[in-house]
Input
Amino acid sequence: MKKLFGLVLIGMFLLSCANTGMNKGQTGAIGGAAAGALIGQAVGRDTTATLIGAAAGGLLGYIVGNEMDKADRQRLSHTYESTPSGQTSSWVNPDTGNRYTVTPQPAYTQNQRVCREAEIIAVIDGKQEKTYTTACRDANGDWVLQK
Output
């Protein structure tokens, strides 16, 4: 448990040092690594499983985040805005052929901002990838993906 706490602290430090100019792939990698670490710890209950989960989640998050273009991010934002919790929104990008299925979760408040998490299943070049994202409303009320 102490090792997990240490890993969480390291992750929080890395997130706090993150450059706001990160690209889509880097943002996806951070979210994927965090989700993968949590899943790895829950399944394996040891440091090795946590690290393997973080590595796998980071890679998947990078792949999905790097492939989403502006139109996909707009659809994702629309899903955060209008899709009820637990229901799925799907689309195919007409330019890339990539398919996305997004299932948002209930909204919650974090640091006085409304946030939602979502599971994204993307089919990119025929390969299915799963990752998790979090978006929070900014001062204008727009959904912004968190790093």
